[in-house]
Design goal:
This protein has 398 residues and is an alpha/beta fold. It contains 17 helices and 13 strands. The strands form 4 sheets. The protein has a 6-stranded parallel β-sheet, with helices on both faces. A hairpin with a 2-residue loop joins strand 3 and strand 4. Helix 1 packs across helix 6 (168-191). The model has no long low-confidence stretch (mean pLDDT 96).
């Protein structure tokens, strides 16, 4: 087994901050790539100080910046731009998630490396893409989730759209960027050429929208929010149990539905020809949901889930993070890794997918600002101690 991962040997320069670009870099680094993260000397990436803290560093940072080599370079200074340019010229991949045009002002856009590094894969993550009438707008994930159509279908009819309590637009875009980078590297094996991977937050979320476009264009149907159900698929819903806990039941297969209704004490509904297939069940959704809600309200969640498991009906609890950490399946699947921070253990999530021969791994948690300056600026770029000291005095590096 190769412990280095399937991307071992590739060098990535990460210019982005906050979440979308750094999440792409996190995934590449987890699966073996060398990721050099360029951070501003005056505080570094803002996520170092976001949300829950331990000491002066956020717990989020320890996960998001894992396996990355932090280098402090001020890209607002000419000497800093020169250092970044030299690093990118020696890289396989560059990732940036600034507003379109920013890196061009610094002289670090993809065109700057056409001759010096023609094999460079240059991933660009922005709110709306590198062109089009909205390209110059600030691209926050919350706004892009709304424009993508994703927010519209979330929540309950007649109420304000709901956002998940996660930065889902950023992470989904980071996954798209990582996938695009790997595809570009595969193509490069044949052509020998790099290319630009243009990822937009609004388009990444648009990619999740399933059949909403053909349903609208073909039948004029606008998919609406549907609470805890999914429009046109019955039954699949969340039900409150006697103990106050919620369970999810997915009984929308024809034979699964029959087993579900027998388990729920409604054998007559299992035999009802009106409910034999999904189109008929959609017409009688209220009747089916009322029967299942009544059944769940009379039983405790664990007992009901046991009955559904015995009936081979897909069902499960609604977990919070404490539930996940304690769950034996999550642990058996290796979904948690433990790192050490100042002598104290910290559990962070493992990343997927899993590989049978070349798995990914957290080699070290997100480190202190500039911890790899000597390794990268000294050993890789060949800067002497004197040169580094002059750059520190000029506030180009920290």
């Amino acid at each position: 087994m190769n412990p280095s991962g399937p991307l071992a040997g590739y060098r990535v320069i990460e210019l982005g901050q906050l979440l979308a670009g750094p999440f792409a870099g996190c995934m590449l680094g987890y699966f073996g790539a060398e990721v050099i993260k360029i951070e501003p000397p005056d505080g570094g990436d803002p996520i170092r100080r976001w949300r829950e803290m331990r000491g002066d560093t956020s717990l989020w940072w320890r996960s998001l910046a894992r396996n990355k080599k932090s280098v402090t370079i001020d890209l607002r200074k000419e000497q800093g731009v020169d250092l970044a340019r030299r690093l990118i010229e020696q890289a396989d991949v560059a990732i940036e998630n600034f507003r379109p045009g920013v890196v061009e002002k610094w002289g670090l856009g993809p065109e700057a490396f056409r001759d010096s590094n023609p094999g460079l894969v240059y991933a660009r993550i922005s709110g709306y893409g590198q062109d089009g009438p909205y390209a110059g707008r600030p691209g926050f994930a919350s706004v892009c989730e709304g424009m993508s159509g994703f927010r519209y279908v979330n929540g309950h009819p007649g109420e304000a759209p709901v956002r998940p309590n996660l930065s889902i637009g950023d992470t989904i875009s980071g996954i798209h960027a990582a996938l695009g980078i790997v595809m570009a590297l595969l193509e490069k094996k044949d052509s020998g050429k790099g290319q630009v991977v243009d990822v937009a937050l609004v388009e990444s979320m648009f990619n999740l929208m399933e059949a909403v476009v053909p349903e609208y264009d073909g039948n004029g149907v606008v998919r609406e929010p549907s609470g805890s159900t999914v429009t046109g698929i019955v039954p699949t819903n969340t039900y409150r149990c006697r103990d106050g806990k919620y369970i999810v039941i997915g009984g929308n297969g024809d034979t699964i539905f029959q087993r579900l209704m027998v388990a729920a004490g409604c054998p007559e509904m299992a035999r009802d020809p009106r409910l034999a297939s999904n189109p008929g069940r959609v017409q009688q959704e209220a009747e089916i949901d009322a029967a299942l809600a009544s059944w769940c309200a009379r039983g405790d969640s664990a007992d009901l889930l046991d009955q559904l498991d015995q009936a081979r009906v897909p069902a499960g609890p609604i977990y919070n993070v404490e539930d996940m950490v304690k769950d034996p399946h999550f642990n058996a699947r290796g979904l948690f890794e433990t790192v050490e921070i100042d002598g104290e253990p910290l559990k962070i999530p493992a990343l997927v997918p899993k590989f049978s021969r070349t798995p990914g791994v957290t080699r070290w948690p997100g480190g202190e600002l500039g911890h790899a300056n000597q390794e990268v600026l000294g050993d890789l770029l060949g800067l002497t101690e004197r040169q580094q000291e002059l750059l520190r005095k000029a506030a180009v590096i920290a």
